[in-house]
Amino acid sequence: MWTSLRTNRILIGRVVGAQGLRGELKIHALTDNPARFADMDTLRLYGSDGTLRSELTLLSVRFLDSKGIVVAGTKEVKDRNGAEALVGTTVEILPEERYPLEEGAFWVDDLLGMTVVNHSTGDVLGTVSDVVPAGENDLYTVRDETGTDHFIPAVKEFIAGVDLEKREMRISLIEGLW
Q1: Strand pairing class (149-153; 139-143)
Q2: How far is the C-alpha of 53 from the C-alpha of 112, rounded, in Å?
Q3: Residue pLDDT, tens place only, 12-46
Q4: Would you give the DSSP letter of residue 84?
Q5: Distance between CA atoms of 26 and 5, rounded to whole angstroms?
Q6: In terms of Cα–Cα distance, which of 16, 92, 28, 10 is closest to 56?
Q7: Other CB atoms closer than 10 Å to residue 164's CB: what's the count?
């Protein structure tokens, strides 16, 4: 899931416009699982300053898949002007509202700040500073003690193990990777 934490909340969408005249919200989905909107009862919308702007009761959800847009109808917003007033707000959830992941998958925010260790030698290489979407496989950005970033493909060949409790990622280096 490619989302970010903001004051212990996870960004899953951004209101980008109004749809029609009845107050439906056009939401750009910022989650790997846009279908999650269909399972939600409420939308919590936050302003750019991080404050809660609105908590809306969801009545309907449909998807414009080719555009990555979720169209949401709510009980509280009844016209286009009301929907347009919410453009720019973000849809955020609490960590406990996330979907369970498949075995071996991790949330981005669980990996950030994790210590990275060379699996063969036990040497500390740095910390995970970012996760970059790069097509089929993400890249873990590992920042070493000099501030240099190294990019490690998020594939089994390089990731020997991740221990969430120890906050440690073990990587198998090959020549030229570091």
Answers
A1: antiparallel
A2: 28
A3: 899 999 999 999 999 998 887 888 899 999 999 99
A4: H
A5: 22
A6: 92
A7: 12
